[in-house]
From TrEMBL:
Taxonomic lineage: Bacteria, Pseudomonadati, Thermodesulfobacteriota, Desulfuromonadia, Geobacterales
Sequence similarity: Belongs to the hemerythrin family.
Biological source species: Geomesophilobacter sediminis
GO molecular function: metal ion binding
Entry superkingdom: Bacteria
Protein name: Hemerythrin family protein
Keywords recorded for this protein, A-Z: Iron, Metal-binding
Length: 144
């Protein structure tokens, strides 16, 4: 069984970003469970749409927060975020033509991709932002 839990390794130390990463993992897990229970493409529509909305909100939040800070690798992160969303749409637009097994494999590939990206690029950039926040005494997401 695939593990979708929020591993300590994925934590950035930024409350809002960590909460969003957790929501995305929960959304991926829900989709995985629904696929394994044999839901059809039509039945999955709402779950996929919800996950897409979560991802868009998260990527927008993270990119907006980091945009002016000059974190190296930021351009790569933005490009990867866009490609990730396209892959998610592709995996589920092909569901029906592709088998459930192929769709599950596509979803697990996306989950690994998300987790690896969180562990490396997202975590590094958010920790960089956390350092700047501490230096200037302000929260970049406006929560203080
Ligand atoms: Fe992120």
């Amino acid at each position: 069984m695939e593990d979708f839990s929020m591993n300590a390794e994925y934590r950035t130390g930024h409350e809002l970003i960590d909460a969003q990463h957790l929501k995305v993992l929960v959304g991926l897990s829900q989709l995985y469970g629904e696929l394994l229970r044999g839901k059809t493409k039509e039945e999955l529509y709402g779950t996929v749409e919800n996950l897409e909305a979560l991802l868009k909100l998260h990527f927008f939040t993270e990119e907006a927060m980091l945009e002016t800070l000059g974190c190296s690798g930021m351009d790569e992160m933005v490009a990867h975020d866009a490609v990730f969303l396209r892959h998610l749409q592709q995996v589920f637009s092909d569901y029906g033509e592709n088998s459930t097994t192929e769709t599950v494999d596509g979803l697990l590939f996306l989950k690994s991709w998300f987790v690896e990206h969180v562990r490396h690029v997202h975590k590094r950039c958010v920790q960089y932002a956390n350092g700047i926040e501490r230096m200037v005494g302000l929260r970049l997401d406006g929560t203080n």
